[in-house]
Amino acid sequence: MIPAPKEISLLQGQLPVPEKLKLSSSKSISPDLLSALKLIRASVAEDDTGTETLLHRFSALPATDPDTYVLQIDPERITVSASSDNGFRYGFQSLMQLMQIHRKAGFIPCQRIIDSPQWSWRGLHLDVSRHFFEPDFVCQYLDWMASLKLNKFHWHLTDDQGWRIESKLYPRLTEIGAWRKAEDGSSYGGFYTHAEIHRIVDHATALGIEVIPELDLPGHCLAVLAAYPQFACFPKDFEVMNTWGISDDILCAGNDEVLSFLKEIFSELAELFPGRYFHLGGDEAPKARWKACPKCQKRIVELGLKDEEALQSWLFRELAAHLKTLGKEVIGWDEILDGEIDSEPLVTVWRGDGIEADRKAIKNGNRIILCPNQFLYFDWFQAEAENEPGAFGITTLEKVYSFELSDYDQDKSGLILGAQANVWTEQMDSPGRVRYMLFPRIYALAELLWSSSQNRSWSDFQNRLAELESAL
Ligand SMILES: [Zn+2]
Fold first, then answer.
1. How many alpha carbons fall within 13 Å on the CB side of residue 335?
2. Residues, CB-to-ion distance under 5 Å, ligand 1
3. What is the pLDDT of residue 60?
4. pTM of the model as a whole
């Protein structure tokens, strides 16, 4: 199985692989959870047939982690025990994998699995700006995540190459900002309506996945400037970018209208996402325009700020304070540590091996999500082969598997929540290409986040991966 469970004990006998599952519960199981479990696999029977599958809610916790589950396979029935809905989901996902692995043989060996996750943040990111993906595919992506017990979906919704989320307050963001002109003159783009966002978020919630939306700012905003040029330091006719890279034109931090725009857009969009977090980007924002802009310079003088980095930190703090009033916590890329921030924001540590930013964040007291590009950027090549798709360096399956979170937590600060892999889609123009870049690396990601170091071994992982892939 992947990810490797904490503890498996083999028992006497075997259970024929069920065609259908007949769910029953000893204690109150919410209708929401029942429909969520049916969403995981359609093999849950609607009628009264199928292998008896008992859902048992622990009255007392067997362990401190609420996500713990116990899955027991007996010759005539299956029991999933947990104390939280997520515990049931994870137990159910393990059952699905066991059924898949043993389908050809026809029998599942009787066994008891006792399991819980090592890290609480087990994330996967998807960039839908560089290339746009339909809601059905995003739901499929969430299904893949859930099947491997990943629980945080970081949704990169805006960038220079396209704004992908409907705003009723600022309709030009999608009328103009969601579309770019391709080299052949055709128009490329798309966006999610509020109804589509609801559908995707509901799907994620049923699977036990929290959605973390990202609006990247103040850089990576050419799609905004194409729609509303007055938000630039030096307004002109901007176009949504149709190449990759970094733009010097960013949002003007000296313009009060920009601040109002951002606060209004966050207020509008925060309602669509029930989760705790909002990612504000903060990466790769060149300061050339701010250095030359009278408004930005005036703001720096008025607020007594040191320089343009400090101006970006001020903007981040203003928006974080606003999001706090909406009940949200904020996350930023590790560039936010280059200026002065307080200890509240979470930091996605991405540059290089992440060690320097990790130390800086721990010193400043910020919580950390590790996603160092050398290990966890799934847009990087998977192999050295000719015609291998990808960019930058090489991140093989083994390299992903070798990533060790506890190496970053030497002072046991407890500030590291977990990790995520990032899927930047400059080189991925179709669902098939995303799938190619994701698999099999997503298996390694899931295991290094769920299973403890003592429970993991590269050679054993390769065997289990082969077993799982041959069952697909
Ligand atoms: Zn400016």
1. 19
2. 233, 252, 254, 293, 295-296
3. 65
4. 0.97
Over the Cα atoms of the chain, what is R_g? 24
Residue range(s) in the chain whose domain bears CATH number 3.30.379.10: 7-115
CA pair distance 187, 176, nearest whole angstrom: 11
Compute the C-alpha angle 82/87/89, nearest 5°. Answer: 120
Choices 1.10.3720.10, 3.30.230.10, 3.30.70.260, 3.30.379.10: CATH for 7-115? 3.30.379.10
**Start-end of CATH 3.20.20.80 domains in the chain:** 121-450
Identify the pLDDT of residue 27. 65
Q: Which residues contact 136 (CB under 8 A, 6 or more apart)?
A: none
| Sheet of 69-73, strand order | 7-16, 107-115, 69-73, 77-82, 51-57, 21-25
Query: Which segments of the chain have a pLDDT < 70?
Result: 26-28, 41-46, 60-64
- The confidence score (pLDDT) of residue 62 equals 59
Q: Which pLDDT does position 463 carry in this prediction? A: 98
String of DSSP letters for 52-92: EEEEEE-SS-SSS-TT-EEEEE-SSEEEEEESSHHHHHHHH
What backbone phi and psi angles, to 5 degrees, belong to 35?
Answer: -70, -30
Whether the CA torsion 293, 309, 349, 206 is positive or negative: it is: negative
Cα–Cα distance measured from residue 242 to residue 188, given in angstroms and rounded to the nearest whole number: 9
| CATH class (in words) of the domain with range 121-450 | alpha beta
Taking the centre of ligand 1 as the mean of its atom positions, its distance from the CA of residue 311, in whole angstroms, is 10
Strands (E), 303-457: 329-333, 346-349, 368-370, 380-381, 391-394, 416-421
Beta bridge partners of 332: 347
Q: What is the DSSP letter of 247?
A: -
Active site residues: 159, 220, 284
CA torsion sign for 75, 77, 82, 86 is: positive
Residue 132 CA to ligand 1 center (angstroms) comes to 30
At 347 the pLDDT is 98
Alpha-carbon 424 to chain mean position: 12
Distance 272 CA to ligand 1 centre (A): 30
Distances (CA, A) of 418 to 89, 148, 176, 413, 448: 20, 15, 37, 13, 10
- From the CA of 262, how far away is ligand 1's center (Å)? 15
- Per-residue pLDDT of 127-154, as tens digits, reads 999 999 999 999 999 999 999 999 999 9
For the stretch 351-363, pLDDT in tens is 999 999 999 999 9
* Residue whose pair of structure tokens reads 């170091």 in the numeric block: 453
